[in-house]
Design goal:
Largest sheet: 8 strands, mixed
Number of strands: 31
Distance between the termini: 73 Å
Number of domains: 3
Strand content: 15-25%
Mean pLDDT: 96
CATH topology of the largest domain: Phosphoenolpyruvate Carboxykinase, domain 3
Shape: globular
Number of helices: 16
CATH class of the largest domain: Alpha Beta
CATH architecture of the largest domain: Alpha-Beta Complex
Length: 597
């Protein structure tokens, strides 16, 4: 070990875990480039990684076909009472769950190295940052955590002898007997996979999966599920939100935090290239925002992550040129096609398909093969600092002041292009009823309407009704300093299935109207569902779009919204008496406004 660990709680936990999991060796990660390079070289030599000839310092991994995504059905919030976890979470009593998992952990790292990864969520010198330590037997996880967090010796220095940390225990669940050969992607069967959170103890235990948010425990497990509990306890916010800076031609900065369910263009918006002359955008974060009220009473946000863990399929120079430039070097790719010349490819990349490649299952692949070459949830991991439009303030310790919250979803109809909330409570109602039509990337039949409150349904670490109340409480504290709240829908279609709005960089036209609303210079029309712009209020200069399409995008279909009411009421009924009365009142008010002529 290249550094001294003075935190006795950490030393004791590592010793106890080693005694339980029985690894062949224990390695304390220092976070250096040499460490990363050495681990990658080991994985290439072992056949679990392929070095890409066409991209400097880039590597491709292929997971086991049973281990390709977050497993929500095997993700647990383990609180003393079931109602504290709420109806949106899976629950097992803490003693029962720990008993089951201790049996699985016993000897689970035999034949493997146990890596200890001290990491910081947020810039280490930020007062908003939190420290975690992940123990894992996966070198793939170590390398991803190098990119996604600030990891290593500098975190141990910040922790000191008495600092607090979140213990994160992970194992792929595949011990090796003496002489037993390893496999390219070790993992356990589905019935042995557990991604478990113990909010009362700020504790994370994960077993059996090596993939993404199941294994990179700083991400969804810590930065959202545990952090939401910490945030409620300590009076701040942990949200599944991108953070974007817009800069007007006059140089004024606006900061936007936006939450969307999967397949709704979150990363694309985080790295938007405005099409309006003179407007610029900078990325601060693409997935998670931690926000606290500053000394001036405003809400300030940091991106707790240090990298991007993005979905590759559909990412292209049309949809997200900045992401494409970000992953040219120093990136990890998982479950993409390997081309014959040593590059990666995926569906929706915008580049012609290779005439031949190796698919994500390691099989020969050619265009026209019965299955996609890349898994729909194939991923890239890349340092945020490499993004061409990363803000110079993306690691500012105090964070950036949030002016605007945006919620949204993918709806072919009903929801207009943009709606502004009447007030904070109405904005919380818009976030709490956020909905999206399922795509091939979601579980369930394509086209079904799925409520995903605040895009947080899989990530809230406690009863979501209490989470709604926390939003209301934060609004009460912020008062007149609270950010404005908007709801967007980039995905409206004609009856024939054609897009009404071009999306991508053109979404900046909608963002500009939001900024003008914050400044009090743009008008809005009052409707039963909120405040909407007229066509004349949006900057459409240079945009070739039919007037009828704009009218349809901004139309409030009263009958369609009346038909939506039973689903909203059913959605809220899940939370029973715990649902805040102020949200019940919002339902009543919407019904009354829709009922008026």
């Amino acid at each position: 070990m290249a550094y001294e660990v003075k935190n006795q709680r950490l030393v004791q936990w590592v010793h106890e875990t080693a005694a339980l999991c029985q690894p062949e060796a224990v390695y304390w990660c220092e976070g250096s480039q040499a460490e990363y390079d050495n681990l990658m070289a080991q994985m290439v030599a072992a056949g679990s990684a392929v070095q890409l000839k066409q991209r400097p310092n880039c590597f491709l991994f292929r997971s086991d076909p049973s281990d390709v995504a977050r497993v929500e059905a095997r993700t647990y919030i383990s609180t003393p009472g079931k109602d504290d976890a709420g109806p949106t979470n899976n629950w097992i009593a803490p003693d029962e769950l720990k008993g089951t998992m201790r049996k699985l952990y016993r000897g689970c790292m035999a034949g493997r190295t146990m890596y200890v990864i001290p990491f910081s969520m947020g810039p280490i010198d930020s007062p908003m940052a939190k420290i975690g330590v992940e123990i894992t037997d996966s070198p793939y996880v170590v390398c991803n955590m190098h990119i996604m967090t600030r990891a290593g010796a500098k975190v141990i220095d910040a922790l000191g002898p008495d600092g607090d940390f979140v213990p994160c225990l992970h194992s792929v669940g595949a011990p090796l007997a003496p002489g037993q050969p390893d496999v390219a992607w070790p993992c356990a069967p589905m019935e042995q996979k557990y991604i478990s959170h113990f909010p009362e103890e700020n504790l994370i235990w994960s077993f059996g999966s090596g993939y993404g948010g199941n294994a990179l425990l700083g991400k969804k497990c810590f930065a959202l599920r545990i952090a939401t509990v910490l945030a409620r306890r300590e009076g701040w916010m942990a949200e599944h939100m991108l953070i974007l800076r817009l800069i007007s031609p006059a140089g004024k900065q606006y900061h936007i935090a936006a939450a969307f369910p999967s397949a709704c263009g979150k990363t694309n918006l985080a790295m938007i290239q405005p099409t309006i002359p003179g407007w610029q955008a900078e990325c601060i974060g693409d997935d998670i925002a931690w926000m606290k009220i500053g000394p001036d009473g405003r809400l300030y946000a940091i991106n707790p992550e240090a990298g991007f863990f993005g979905v590759a399929p559909g990412t292209s120079y049309q949809s997200n040129p900045m992401a494409m430039d970000t992953i040219r070097e120093n990136a990890i790719f998982t479950n993409c096609v390997l081309t014959d010349d040593g590059d990666v490819w995926w569906e929706g990349m915008g580049a012609p398909a290779p005439t031949h490649g190796i698919d994500w299952k390691g099989r020969d692949w050619t265009p026209g093969s019965p299955e996609p070459g890349a898994h729909p949830n194939a991923r890239f991991t890349a340092p945020a600092a490499q993004c061409p439009v990363i803000s110079s303030d993306w690691e500012k310790p105090a964070g950036v002041p949030i002016d605007i919250f945006v919620f949204g979803g993918r709806r072919a109809g009903v929801a207009p292009l943009v709606t502004e909330a009447f007030d904070w409570d109405h904005g919380v109602f818009l976030g709490a009823t956020a909905s999206s039509e399922t795509t091939a990337a979601n579980i369930g039949a394509v086209g079904n309407l799925r409520r995903d409150p605040f895009a947080m349904q899989p990530f809230c670490g406690y009863n979501m009704a209490d989470y709604f109340q926390h939003w209301l409480d934060m609004g009460d504290r912020l008062g007149s300093q609270a950010p404005r709240i908007f709801y967007v829908n980039w995905f409206r279609k004609t009856p024939a299935g054609q897009w009404l709005w071009p999306g991508y960089g053109e979404n900046s036209r909608v963002l500009k109207w939001m900024c003008e609303r914050v400044d009090g210079v743009a008008p809005a029309q009052e409707t039963p569902i909120g405040l909407l712009p007229s066509a004349a209020d949006l900057d459409l200069d240079g945009l070739d779009i039919a007037p009828d399409n704009i009218r349809e995008l901004l139309r409030v279909d009263r009958a369609a919204w009346q038909a939506e009411m039973p689903d909203i009421e059913k959605h809220f009924a899940r939370f029973g008496d715990r649902l805040p009365e102020r949200l019940r009142l919002q339902v009543q008010r919407l019904a009354a406004r829709l009922g008026r002529g």
